[in-house]
Each structure stands twice: as C-alpha cells, then as structure tokens.
Amino acid sequence: MEIINCQYLGHQLGNRSSRGQIIPLYSCRHPAHENTVASECAACPHRRERFEIIHEKKHDKFTTASPAPKLVRQPDKLMKCRGAFAPLGNLYHGASAFLVLSGPSLNKLDLSLLEQRGVLTLAVNNAATVFRPRLWIHIDQAVKFHSAVWRDPGILKFVTKGEVNRRVRVRDGENFCSAEQTYADMPGVFAYHRNVNFNPQTWLTEASINSGNGREEAAKNGHPRVITVFLAALRLLFYLGCHKVYLLGCDWQMRHNQDNYAFRERKRAEGVNHNNDSYRKIEVLLKTLLPVFAEHGLQVYNCNPGSRLTLFPHKPYAEALAEVTAACHDVHDTEGWYEVG
Predict the structure, then answer these.
(1) pLDDT tens-digit map of 178-224
(2) How far is the C-alpha of 129 from the C-alpha of 148, rounded, in Å?
(3) Contacts of 158 (CB under 8 A, 6+ apart)
(4) Which of 73, 120, 242, 296 stands the most exposed, by the fewest C-beta atoms within 10 Å?
(5) What is 69-328's CATH topology?
(6) How far apart are the C-alpha atoms of 110 and 18, rounded to whole Å?
(7) Rounded mean pLDDT of the chain?
C-alpha cells in the first residue's frame, strides 16, 4: 500500500499559547498543510510510519509485518473486583502505552493528542487531574487523590488491597470529609496485591505488584530502601500485556521554591530533598531491571528530552504518537465492512 511520509518539523514560525503554556509553531513541509505545531503534524493523516499489511488468505486474517511480542503468562489471582478474582493478565497484549507521570513538563505537551485512536494511557496519582487517562494506579493512601478520579467510570482504577475498603474522601469548599461510600464502591475499581520485597529476577512475573524495597527487605537483600508508584505502574503495564511504554512528565527532579507538579500542589523543602534522594535510589533499582526488561521484551522510552532519568532512550512525543496511532488511523473507509463473503 502507498504510504506518504510527511516531512514534519520545518522551520519555526513563532509560538502559540495552549493550556497556559507556550508551544513552538512550525511549518509543515507537506504541501497539503500550512501552519501547525510539530505534534499535530506528526498526527496528520499524511505522516504514517511505514508498515505493511499482509493478507494471509489461507487463514483469512490480517497480520502486520511486526509480530506481536511474546506472550508472558501472568498470575491469575493478582487482581480482585468486588471480592472476586479478576484475571486481567495480558488484557492489552501487544499494545503500547503512555505512562503519564506528574512532572511539570507534562504541561508543555498537547495532551489532547492522547485521545486519538490507538493510544492507551496510564496515569499515576493526581496526574489524572491534568489528563483523563484510560487507566490509573496509586500506592499511597487513597485519600490523597482527587475524588473526581475515583468517581469517573471511564477510568479503570487499580487500588492497593489495604486501601480499597476505606471511605472516600471528598471536598466541601476548603474542608474535607468522608463520604458513606468506600473506594470499593467506586466504578471501575480493581484491587491488587502489592509487595515491597524487590527481586529483579521475579519482578515481571511474580504474583503481586512490586513498588520498591521496604526497610526490613532492604536490610536483607541489600537493595536501596525506596517506595515508588513509578515501579508499580511499570509492573502493571507489563502485567496487562504492554511491552512498549512511553514516559510523559518524567522530569526526575524537584527544585526548591518552584512548581514541582503538573497540577497545583505545594512541596516543602524536606519533601523536595526526599524525592530527589528517592530518584537516585529508584535509578539503582532500575539498573538491575534493565537486563530483565531486555529478556522479556519490555521497552521503555522517555519522551522528555530534559529529564534527569537517562537510563531509557529518548523518543520525541510526536514520534511516539505516530507509532501507536499508525495501525488505527483511518476509520473513514467504512463502506464494505458489513459485506462478508
């Protein structure tokens, strides 16, 4: 099939304001376009990553030239919903996902592009207030996270088992109070079993989701003591079958007396120091996981060129979007689909 490649990122024409941020404005080199931002140009129908559709008449099915990743069996009893086991392992087998973190660089992106077909998103903590994801996970106390996220039926929420039966925290003006409902009563909630015993050899396949290394565990296994939702989110995506992950809002640093989140929230000096120390420790754990990721086919890319986390290769946001939307792009060729021979 004929694929037209748009040579995007022409010369910069100026800037435009979006969501309170200044976004560079470029010229699109494709003759059918004039002015656009780079991310929009990468998403235009004329820019498609080259891929081939092969029709196998023998099996009467379509396959892509790039085979699906190897299926890794996942534990059946890791998740529960309403008290019953929910075997969600490999639910999204073969899909890629954007992992939406909370760094302020998130506000520099046109997040509306994540609403395109083919895009799967998982947000952590209150990053889900900046962008409405398909999936969401936390490890801290459930009461820390906005009630609008909990009440949204369009978001599948993954909650630690120890928090799922607590009462929902709601806001009334400047005050907070507890609702009669629990987090288990919220729509789209799955409770997962979490562990804090970091073991790189079993990390991608064990019957629980690891979120780092606890105090007692660190004394025994020698790995740094650190707990983070970042690890839990990566493990969840692999459990769900995603073998390619793109990081957004991964700044990997906090600064004193500056905005350190993509949403409004203060961070005290001791909290800034603690988080920066945690980033260094998490990176130590991630280095031990790199060969495990390679063995199981898990690829992680960082879309923030200014991130302090350099363990994973950088991939521009526009390029990542083009990759995940390529197979789902054209939905206008509807005529003839109902005719089956």
Answers:
(1) 999 999 999 999 999 999 999 999 999 999 999 999 999 999 999 99
(2) 8
(3) 79, 135, 136, 137, 138, 190, 191, 192, 236
(4) 73
(5) sialyltransferase cstii, chain A (3.90.1480)
(6) 8
(7) 84
